[in-house]
């Protein structure tokens, strides 16, 4: 390749890139970029028409700037212009820009699609390919709509050049992935399948990706591809390493195509036709044989390509799961890789063997490698490889090797990476339960687990051991003895105390015959841990104590004394205090019979799937298990030990933030001292502008300066609860001269007075305000039904003989009476749908007046008084809120959705309420806020 | 394949190709996270790792990391060789390619990639055919008298470490 092609003369671009590279700091880089952006902008805007070359250069610079991570908001039009240039390089740069910086601006998409259409029909293969690449890179729905019909025609047409066919195939694949409904293969299906027979290997390589994807979705329509794929594969596998010329890669014939063929076959069951199947088995055997041949090259590329095919073949063998001979051979091959010096191969072998372990034909063969796998777990230096080894041990575990594997996993846990400990703990717990022959081994294992990795033992694990001990009476005595011994350790994990407390509380009597574990010794042992434990564990221990009183009457006085002590009965924790008080009373009042009934041994738990398994499934992948089951498991655990979880209620009280919480920090200090945003100059305009915008400024906040001029400042502070509100007005005299005959009146114009808003002023003002002084007035507000207008505040006073007269709107808006409502995503959308009448919805699209800062938006929405709901809208950029407006007459539920579009600097606001006037009014109020 | 990233040892992104629709914000987040993860790995570690629900396949050539994200059922080893073939293509085109070639001729790097992979799938695996396509395109461009003041570069990418 000639070196001249390196830079096709865009000197300015090279200079610019050099400049950027020479920048010593991020700031310098940004400065240089801004300079360049300004330059390009002026060039694009300039009167002089730019020639194609300059346009190309500038578009390329913009692209470079974008790829550095900066935002680009212009130049799209110039790039689109380049598309219709007849100079190839200009067209090419235009397409590149569009591919990288797609913009869903519909105006542009239409122009882009036009250009693409022209190029597709140009009959110039190079231009056609460019256009197809662009469609494949963008892959938008608009493009699918425009071209999904045309591209299959190009793909199967007899006179289409090979390179165009290749691009068309993959272009169609991309469109199918984005908009499967628009890509209709129908009549083309069989001709597309027959591309597998194409003479050109490149065409086959490209087409097979499309065929595989289509086969996964419509296996029946494409099933003729199986025999074609087998014969193609067979020809490749049996070819000499030079037959395929440039499609041979490091002595391996067509590795990419081979992998894709094997992958396609995995979409189908084994071929029914005996001949086809025989041919395929032959291929698979050849591939396995080749793995044993000495390498034709020492290069890693050779072995990688060869092994890529081998692993894909093994995947197919596992997928069929019907050829014992091949399965065992695959397993042996993987066994060799387990000790290969290439880390990559060891990793893949472990991974692949995991699936082999689940096949009945190869399970035993996999098991023979147990020592190697254990060794990998111990010695691999890369945690991702160790993880694979642990997975494989878990997969190959059965009754015969469970003890060994669990022991190895336990000992690995002591040094395991933190990232995989929790999963390891779950796996050990599951294996121990699943393959327990005698339950004493199970109990030992779980207690060991708690000892070694207590912090990673989740509730499910220790709940489960208790469930099993309760349900199996043959293990109860052993369990009691073992926990008793485990608790002897000077430092034992809190989870151990929980299990110990529970089990001794239930079955301590089974070991009480031994003087070394007499009731008092047991109790003292438990109680010695008490002060080290958290509140839930202490609560559990208190329940164990009351059970002790029932099991061992001789411990009654000691335990009562403990319960009676100030640290229990006056404990600041309500739950502990309540338990202490109740248990103390219970033990002193109830007869032995009653006590024995109340504190009876727990009944067996219903058999169910281990909640641990559910947890592991959940960790491994969402959707594998229903969350309900998990929750049930938890609840079941919560009922352990009779005492129940009474503490739960108090913590369940949701603390919703007060809607009137002052978000803008204006609460502190009298409002007069708060800085006035628009001071002074309002004297003239008081009645129109200031009054209006003044009131609107308070939609999302309750406190602040309502009005200010050179004489007077009016501060406001308000609070609302349900349908009631109270507003404090502060009138500050800014002059040194007193105001006389100072009077204020609040009026509700029109309907407002009679039946919408009920207002009365609480205290009448002194008619005199001294210079520099401030007086306060309180107004009570009651909302009767929803309303739109605001009450007016009229102020009259004399200043130096001149009469001053102002009228302001009071910032009382309907949203002030919101009660926030928290709800889950599901509920939100359900209610959203319920409010589907056209008049219930109000929507506005408006330009942003302020910077679109997420935090500011959140603060404003909270200030609005609704609950801001997180994780409800699938698009995290959007905001949704819910609340109920409390009026005396009725409650009006309202939902809100705000969708910012940062690119366009626009918002779309949608409000739905059970009352149409409310939706409308809220929308009006809010449209001014952002 | 879902995306391919090229970045330097210093964590500078040199090329990014996304085959799934993602917002710019997501792309930046993914890039940041992955660059960090991959750079933190030691030389002898394996070239594959699980990341979110994807498999990452990466390989270092001199100062550059090539990193691909593939789906669960995709083949790791063949992806490793996709990376290698792309490096070979760049090498052949630029004549002993190095990081600076890719910086200064980023558009070429994209064009070559588009000839080789399309929509995340191999389109043409023959080195000859890919280069022929690029060559033809180069012939179409006007002969330019300007030359690039490119620094003389060390030829370091050609052989993988």
From TrEMBL, chain A:
UniProt region (Disordered), positions on chain: 624-660
GO BP annotations, alphabetical order: clathrin-dependent endocytosis; intracellular protein transport
Any one Gene Ontology cellular component term annotated for this protein: AP-2 adaptor complex
InterPro entries referenced in this protein's UniProt entry, alphabetically: Adaptor_Complx_Large_Subunit (IPR050840), AP2_complex_asu (IPR017104), ARM-like (IPR011989), ARM-type_fold (IPR016024), Clathrin/coatomer_adapt-like_N (IPR002553), Clathrin_a-adaptin_app_sub_C (IPR003164), Clathrin_a/b/g-adaptin_app_Ig (IPR008152), Clathrin_app_Ig-like_sf (IPR013041)
Annotated membrane topology: Peripheral membrane protein
Ranges of residues in domain Clathrin adaptor alpha/beta/gamma-adaptin appendage Ig-like subdomain: 696-811
Compartment list: Cell membrane; Membrane, Coated pit
Entry binding sites for a 1,2-diacyl-sn-glycero-3-phospho-(1D-myo-inositol-3,4,5-trisphosphate): 11-12, 43, 53, 57-61
Function: Component of the adaptor protein complex 2 (AP-2). Adaptor protein complexes function in protein transport via transport vesicles in different membrane traffic pathways. Adaptor protein complexes are vesicle coat components and appear to be involved in cargo selection and vesicle formation. AP-2 is involved in clathrin-dependent endocytosis in which cargo proteins are incorporated into vesicles surrounded by clathrin (clathrin-coated vesicles, CCVs) which are destined for fusion with the early endosome.
Protein name: AP-2 complex subunit alpha
Record organism: Cyprinus carpio
Automatic annotation (TrEMBL), chain B:
GO CC, alphabetical: AP-1 adaptor complex; clathrin-coated pit
Cross-referenced InterPro entries: AP1_sigma (IPR044733), AP_complex_ssu (IPR016635), AP_mu_sigma_su (IPR022775), Clathrin_sm-chain_CS (IPR000804), Longin-like_dom_sf (IPR011012)
One Gene Ontology MF term: clathrin adaptor activity
A GO BP entry: intracellular protein transport
Annotated keywords: Coated pit, Cytoplasmic vesicle, Golgi apparatus, Membrane, Protein transport, Transport
Keyword Transit peptide: no
Assembly description: Adaptor protein complex 1 (AP-1) is a heterotetramer composed of two large adaptins (gamma-type subunit AP1G1 and beta-type subunit AP1B1), a medium adaptin (mu-type subunit AP1M1 or AP1M2) and a small adaptin (sigma-type subunit AP1S1 or AP1S2 or AP1S3). Binds to MUC1.
Membership in a protein family: Belongs to the adaptor complexes small subunit family.
Protein name as catalogued: AP complex subunit sigma
């Amino acid at each position: 390749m000639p070196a001249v092609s390196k830079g096709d003369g865009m000197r300015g671009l090279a200079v610019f890139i050099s400049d950027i590279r020479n920048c010593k700091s991020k700031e310098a880089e940004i400065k240089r970029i801004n300079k360049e952006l300004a330059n390009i902008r002026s060039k694009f805007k300039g009167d002089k028409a730019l020639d194609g070359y300059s346009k190309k250069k500038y578009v390329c610079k913009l692209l470079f700037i974008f790829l550095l991570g900066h935002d680009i908001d212009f130049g799209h039009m110039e790039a689109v212009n380049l598309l219709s240039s007849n100079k190839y390089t200009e067209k090419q740069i235009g397409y590149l820009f569009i591919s990288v910086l797609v913009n869903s601006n519909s105006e542009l998409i239409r122009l882009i699609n036009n250009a693409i259409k022209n190029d597709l029909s140009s009959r110039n293969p190079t231009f056609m390919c460019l256009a197809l690449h662009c469609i494949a890179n963008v892959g938008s729905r608009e493009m699918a709509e425009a071209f999904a019909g045309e591209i299959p025609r190009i793909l199967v047409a007899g006179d289409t050049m090979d390179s165009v066919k290749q691009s068309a195939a993959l272009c169609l694949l991309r469109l199918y992935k984005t908009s499967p409904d628009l890509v209709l293969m129908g009549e083309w299906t069989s001709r597309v399948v027959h591309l597998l027979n194409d003479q050109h290997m490149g065409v086959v390589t490209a087409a097979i990706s499309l065929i595989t994807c289509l086969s996964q979705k419509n296996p029946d329509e494409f099933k003729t591809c199986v025999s074609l794929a087998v014969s193609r594969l067979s020809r490749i596998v049996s070819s000499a390493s030079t037959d395929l010329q440039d499609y041979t890669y490091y002595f391996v014939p067509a590795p990419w195509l081979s992998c894709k063929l094997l992958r396609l076959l995995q979409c189908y069951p084994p071929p029914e036709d005996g001949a086809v199947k025989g041919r395929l088995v032959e291929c698979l055997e050849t591939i396995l044989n080749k793995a044993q041949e000495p390498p034709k090259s020492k290069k890693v590329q050779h072995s990688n390509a060869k092994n890529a095919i081998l692993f894909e073949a093994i995947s197919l063998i596992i997928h069929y799961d019907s050829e014992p001979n091949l399965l065992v051979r695959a397993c042996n091959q993987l066994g060799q890789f387990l000790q290969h010096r290439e880390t990559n191969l060891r990793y893949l072998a472990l991974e692949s063997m995991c699936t082999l372990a689940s096949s009945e034909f190869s399970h035993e063969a996999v098991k023979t490698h147990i020592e190697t796998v254990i060794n990998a777990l111990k010695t691999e230096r890369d945690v991702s490889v160790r993880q694979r080894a642990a997975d494989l041990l878990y997969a190959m575990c059965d009754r015969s090797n469970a003890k060994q594997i669990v022991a190895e996993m336990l000992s690995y846990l002591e040094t395991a990476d933190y990232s995989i400990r929790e999963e390891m703990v779950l796996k050990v717990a599951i294996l121990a339960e699943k393959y327990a022959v005698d339950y004493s081994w199970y109990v030992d294992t779980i207690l060991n687990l708690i000892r070694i990795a207590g912090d990673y033992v989740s509730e499910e694990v220790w709940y489960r051991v208790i469930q099993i001990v309760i349900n199996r009476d043959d293990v109860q005595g052993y369990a009691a003895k073992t926990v008793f011994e485990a608790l002897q350790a000077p430092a034992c994990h809190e989870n151990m105390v929980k299990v110990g407390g529970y089990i001794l509380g239930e079955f301590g009597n089974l070991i009480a015959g031994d003087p070394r574990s007499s009731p008092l010794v047991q109790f003292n042992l438990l109680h010695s841990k008490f002060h080290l434990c958290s509140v839930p564990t202490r609560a559990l221990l208190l329940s164990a104590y009351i059970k002790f009183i029932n099991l061992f009457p001789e411990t009654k006085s000691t335990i009562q004394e403990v319960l009676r002590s100030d640290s229990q009965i006056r404990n600041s924790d309500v739950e502990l205090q309540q338990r202490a008080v109740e248990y103390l009373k219970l033990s002193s009042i109830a007869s032995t019979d009653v006590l024995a009934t109340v504190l009876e041994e727990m009944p067996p738990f219903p058999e169910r799937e281990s909640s641990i398994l559910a947890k592991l499934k959940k960790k491994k992948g969402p959707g594998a298990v229903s969350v309900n089951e998990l929750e049930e498991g938890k609840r079941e655990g919560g009922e352990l030990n009779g005492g129940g979880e009474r503490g739960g209620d108090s913590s369940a009280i949701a603390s919703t933030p007060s809607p009137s919480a002052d978000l803008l920090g204006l609460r502190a200090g009298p409002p007069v001292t708060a800085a006035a945003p628009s001071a002074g100059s309002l004297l003239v305009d008081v009645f129109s502008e200031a009054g209006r915008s003044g009131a609107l400024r308070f939609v999302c906040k309750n406190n602040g300066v309502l009005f200010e001029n050179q004489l007077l400042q009016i501060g406001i502070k308000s609070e609302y609860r349900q349908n009631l509100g109270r507003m404090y007005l502060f009138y500050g005299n800014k002059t040194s001269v007193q105001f006389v005959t100072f009077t204020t009146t609040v009026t509700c114009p029109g309907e407002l007075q009679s039946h919408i808003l009920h207002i009365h002023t609480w205290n009448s003002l002194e008619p005199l305000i001294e210079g520099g002084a401030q007086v306060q007035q309180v107004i009570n507000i009651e909302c009767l039904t929803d309303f739109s207008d605001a009450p007016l505040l009229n102020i009259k006073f004399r200043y130096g003989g001149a009469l001053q007269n102002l009228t302001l709107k009071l910032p009382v808006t309907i949203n002030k009476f919101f009660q926030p409502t928290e709800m889950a995503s599901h509920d939100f959308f359900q209610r959203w749908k319920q409010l589907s009448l056209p008049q219930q919805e109000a929507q506005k699209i408006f330009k942003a007046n302020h910077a679109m800062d997420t935090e500011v938006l959140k603060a404003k929405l909270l200030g609005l008084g609704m609950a801001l709901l997180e994780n409800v809208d699938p698009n995290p950029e959007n905001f949704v809120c819910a609340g109920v407006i409390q009026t005396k007459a009725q409650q009006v539920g309202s939902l809100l959705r705000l969708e910012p579009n940062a690119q366009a600097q626009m918002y779309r606001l949608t409000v739905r309420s059970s009352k149409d006037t409310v939706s409308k009014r809220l929308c009006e109020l809010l449209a001014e806020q952002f | 394949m879902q995306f391919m990233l090229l970045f330097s040892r210093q964590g500078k992104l040199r090329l990014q190709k996304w085959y799934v629709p993602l917002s710019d914000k997501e792309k930046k987040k993914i890039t940041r996270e992955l660059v960090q993860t991959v750079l933190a790995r030691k030389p002898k570690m394996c070239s594959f790792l699980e990341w979110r629900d994807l498999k990452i396949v990466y390989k270092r050539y001199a100062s550059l990391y090539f990193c691909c994200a593939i789906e669960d059922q995709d083949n790791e080893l063949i992806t490793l060789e996709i990376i290698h073939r792309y490096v070979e293509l760049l090498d052949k085109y630029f004549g002993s390619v190095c990081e600076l070639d890719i910086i200064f001729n980023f558009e070429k790097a994209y064009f070559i990639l588009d000839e080789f992979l399309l929509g995340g799938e191999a389109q043409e695996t023959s080195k000859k055919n890919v280069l022929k396509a690029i060559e033809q395109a180069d012939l179409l461009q006007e002969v330019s008298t300007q030359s690039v003041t490119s620094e003389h570069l060390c030829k370091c990418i050609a052989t993988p470490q």
